[in-house]
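lol ok so funny story. i was supposed to be doing the assay writeup but got distracted and ended up predicting the structure for this chain instead. priorities right. anyway since i did it might as well share w the group, maybe its usefull for someone
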Amino acid sequence: MRNVIALDVGGTGMKAALVAADGALLHEARRATGRERGPDAVVASILAFAEELRQEGLVRFGEPPSAAGVAVPGIVDEAGGVAVYAANLGWRDVPLRALLAERLGGVPVALGHDVRTGGLAEGRLGAGRGADRFLFLPLGTGIAGAIGIEGRIEAGAHGCAGEIGHIVVRPGGPDCGCGQAGCLETLASASAVARAWAAASGDPEADAADCAKAVESGDPRALAVWDEAIGALADGLVTGLTLLDPRTLIIGGGLAEAGETLFSPLRAAVEDRITFQTVPHIVPAALGDNAGCLGAGLLAWDLLSAEVTA
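and the output, tada:
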């Protein structure tokens, strides 16, 4: 069976798969990223993992994978195939596409941004299917967005489209790693909620899931933390939907696992803030942590499709 390699590289772990043309995951594997060993070791781990998948495809299906797609965090030059910068991996200007193509015997390789790649999968296979305009927003360690337009993901002129997490929603608020203060992700990401709830509860090990459970039990301290995060998130989303007018707004990441504890007050908060805008369908992501890997597979299959039509 013809297949492609899909790799989703995160700050702590890598997810990989062999993916069929219909999006089916034929083989799945996970490895630690090993960022504590430095950026060169991370690149070496990616190349070795890809080679392992190539051998798996050869053994299973009698032929090596026809292409590969890889999703990475940070700033990505998708056209040039370069992983420009990732703070959590420590690398700069890594020609990852060329390195992978060489390691994999010259097969075509696509390089994508992790959130945009996840958005591609949600748009084609998940919660965005059938939506001509959508915004995919995972709420995890940080917040970024993927802008879906007519079946493609908009990268922007400089590869930075969708960085809604760095819209300032509370001027003078918490310092952000980007150099600003009061950015959306400092207030409404899963890690921001975890920090606020750890401080409010006095439990340094508490996380966002613990806060959500406390909200469900009616804890007033948790409700205060949750309401602050929901308010900041709604302010950021209203800015985004005013600019983009999406038909569907897909919320993913760890915070979305709270279900209606998140979605019910968030929908109400967005509706309270709009005037002339149309409220999009606000829905949970459908693919979970497989989105990035599935999207990387789609990038690889798109390369093969482009070769056929060229």
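The first strand starts at residue 4 and ends at 9. DSSP finds nine helices and 13 strands in the chain.
back to the writeup now i swear
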